[in-house]
Design goal:
With about 270 residues, the chain is of the alpha+beta class. It has four helices and eleven strands; from the N terminus they run ββββββββαβββααα.
Length: about 270
């Protein structure tokens, strides 16, 4: 009688890896070493650096800088460096997808930097609200430095409305006729693209209560700010009046001292009335 074949039994194994969130990295990055010009101070990771315009490559003699004059946005700094003492060799990202809120933009503004980086295969993205989808930011500021990390309640609602309107326009232009996209799952919190396509889902009782509480909080903060502004203005007026009174008193005192220091009138003998 033949012995039946035996097969090894697979055993389940479990791995535990530590994940460290990178606020700058999004996906598919390519990096290289490059020379950064000196006298730029301390540069933080995520800073936009400028280099030669197309079609000139970045070579060993290229000095990247933060100054946009006569150059174009080429790379994103991958590490903190100090250029105070002179030029430094550092690691820069030359391609990939990156998150805008972890970047530092030049004096020409975030919008211009992002447009130039896009031409070199560096795609600056933002996280779509609540969906986790990475999309290009539609309206970047025209100022330099890091982007704001948070918005007030009213500003967030306004930004959401502008984003929904932009997505609606893009959907109408790109959607083939007669092929509507699949609707979102019922009851799920809808991101901007879903609101643009299917409209706003009526809020639940809990969401209505949260919105009312947020509106009440905003109203209270606005009232407190108005009271603080009024108190500050009143204090400034009182201080201004006090300074004016002190100046007037000093002027009167100076006039009295000058009058006492003046000699007698011409033709009048000293000691006689």
């Amino acid at each position: 009688m033949a012995t039946p074949p035996t097969f090894p039994i697979s055993k389940a194994t479990f791995l535990s890896n530590t994940y460290t969130f990178d606020p700058l990295y999004a996906a598919d990055t390519v990096a290289q070493s490059a020379n950064i010009a000196g006298a730029l101070g301390v540069l933080t990771r995520g800073t936009v650096l400028f280099g030669p315009i197309s079609p000139n490559p970045i070579t060993a003699t290229t000095l990247l800088t933060t100054v946009p004059t006569g150059a174009t946005a080429r790379v994103i700094l991958a590490q903190d460096i100090d250029t105070t003492a002179g030029q430094v060799t550092g690691v820069v990202y030359t391609q990939g997808k990156f998150l805008d809120t972890a970047m530092t933009f030049s004096s020409q503004g975030a919008a211009a930097d992002v447009a130039e980086l896009w031409d070199w295969g560096i795609y600056v993205m933002t996280v779509e609200q609540r969906s986790g989808i990475l999309v290009p930011m539609m309206k970047l500021p025209t100022t330099g430095g890091p982007l704001p990390q948070s918005l007030s309640g009213q500003d967030a609602v306004k930004a959401m409305a502008e984003e929904v309107a932009s997505i609606k326009m893009a959907t109408v232009a790109a959607q083939p006729p007669g092929v509507p996209p699949a609707p979102p799952m019922p009851g799920a919190q809808q991101p901007a693209w879903a609101v643009a396509q299917f409209g706003v889902t009526p809020p639940t009782a809990e969401e209505q209560a949260q919105a009312a509480a947020a509106a009440q909080t905003n109203a209270l903060l606005t009232q407190q700010q108005q009271q603080l502004d009024a108190l500050t203005q009143q204090q400034n007026q009182q201080m201004s009046q006090l300074l004016q009174q002190q100046a007037l008193q000093r002027k009167q005192l100076e006039q009295q001292q000058q009058a006492q220091a003046q000699p007698g009138q011409p033709g009048q003998a000293p000691g006689k009335p």
